[in-house]
Structure formats: C-alpha cells, structure tokens
Write a structure and sequence with these properties.
The chain is an alpha+beta fold and 116 residues long. It contains 2 helices and 6 strands, in the order H-E-E-E-E-E-E-H. A hairpin with a 4-residue loop joins strand 1 and strand 2.
Amino acid sequence: MMFQSCVAYQSASVSLEQAVSEQKRTRINTISRKKYHYEKIVFEEGQFYGLKKLNKNMVKIPLDTNVINDVFIQSKSKSTWVTVAIIAIPLIAFTILALDDLNNSFYIEQAAIFGR
C-alpha cells in the first residue's frame, strides 16, 4: 500500500522572493482564480520559474508576475497533521464500529443463552 502525504499551505500569502528563499512546495493563485502547484520557485536570469515534476523530470515553467494574485508556501506542520488525520480518523472510526459490533454480538448471544 502506498501513502501520499497531503500538502497544506500557510494561510498568509508571501512574495515570490520569499517563496524562492523558502525552497518549499508552492501554490500560486492567479487573478483569473486558477491555482498552480509547484515543487518550488526559483529565480534565474531575471525570471521566476515554477519547478514541476513531469514524468519524473523537473520542468521549469516561466511565471508571469502580472497575473499572480497570491503565493502560498507549504506548511510542514499542517501537512503532517492533515496526513495523520486522514489515516487516523478512519482507523479510529473502524475500530469503534468493530468494537460496537462485537459488543452487540455479545449481548445478542447472552440474550439467546439466558432467554432475554
């Protein structure tokens, strides 16, 4: 079984320069309300690029700063908690349901034995 972690982003927007220095996964929202996700943002030869994995290769995509509305960087702590919650909540729910079913089976058995 393969688990993928979820990516949660900080709630406050940052500058492209800060996204470059943080070297974290980044989500960019455009003025037309489109969302783009990148592994990280780099600045080379006067141009910002978003790095994206494509067929196991990193591809540099030039960013048009005129259409960027917000830049959000990954929050490691939020991402960790979201991943844990996605795994833990269904596991806890399954355990509760299984124990409840087991408990109900026990009472049904007892009722049958003692004629209740």
